[in-house]
Amino acid sequence: MFLTAHFAGPSGRGLPFSAVMRKLSFPFWLAGARLRRRGGPLVLVVLGLAAATAMLAAVLAGTVAAQDREVGRQVEQLPAKVRSVRVNWFSVGGQVAPYATLDASVRRQLERVLPERATGTSLYREHQFGGALLSLGAVDDLGRWVRLRSGRLPRVCRPQHCEVLVVRRGGPITNVPGLRLVPVGEGDLRTATLFGDAIPAQDLGESAFVEKIRRYHRPAPPPLVLANGVAALDRSPVLHDAYRSYGWVVPLRRGTVRSWSADALATRIEQARTAFQGSSFGFELTAPTDELLAAADSARVAGRRLLLLGGEAVALLLAFAVLVAARQRPDAEAQLARLSAAGGARRGRARCSAGWPGRPLLRRSPEAAASRSARCSNTRCSPAVGSGSRRRSRPPPPWW
After folding, report:
1. Closest C-alpha among 288, 260, 249 to residue 77
2. pLDDT digits (tens, 9 = 90+) for 331-365
3. Sheet strand arrangement including 162-168
């Protein structure tokens, strides 16, 4: 009913259905004719826009990748003893809380900072066992952090039979009632991440000459042994009143710190530091937050440089597409002139030039409109348009 009222003839009666559909399909036919006649330039415009879009996406992705790589490189260049988020606690065991309580409190806070599980450590002050000094420590999952020189890795410590790894020689390893230490191998720490300078590691980089000077000016240190498992060693009654330091360490690796999350990580570290300082246990959190922020700033500068270079390529591709599109403007203006001479309405001429479907384009009869619009699409612009010298053209094919 709407179509009948909208496409009423001169007598007020509605046009036949075929005539209505012919009117509606004519803009599509005209747009197809224009595309068939001028398909080459249009393809160039589309390809130019597609290439510019792909280049822009590649530049943005490359910028993010370059920033992430720069942050990873900056993190790897940090010294191993500071390249971690570390929580320390110093006291005499049993005076504040059991180790299990401390461990649960620390891990709950660290999980809000980093998703990785922290490695627990403990280091006891040099203690006399059977009349001989001995440095004793423990590490959770010791095999991940040491390199064997001889023997094998110790099993989980038990006070009645606590297997240990000898990291530093220097005298006999004696036993006392309630804690039997059994050396099963010798090795070195792979990195100084766990204990810093407190225990020598292979990556400290000291030359043999510096090591000899250090040993000459200081007395020989007592032997140092490490047990497997902090909580297991802490259960020994012999060490109940010994002064010790507990540590929880989360190493910072290339995949841990990302360019898009470095600032958020530094914020979470500061929040955790505030929480630890406000607790009753007296924890101390250390982390390279300043270095992380500096690495993020450096990565942003590198990303802007890459984005500037890629933006120039995108601008050239867009300029090419605009140039090709601009060369089609005279043809579009000529077509509008032919439509005006053929009696087309203003809104109809706009739809024809854009190739849009819509209401009937011409105010004349369907046959005259089809004939003149076909000439609009199939003939070139000529100054004779509108001056009376019009060429005859074939009517368009039926819409079906």
Report:
1. 288
2. 666 666 665 665 554 545 454 444 443 334 444 44
3. 146-151, 181-189, 162-168, 224-228, 132-139, 119-129, 243-251, 84-92, 284-286
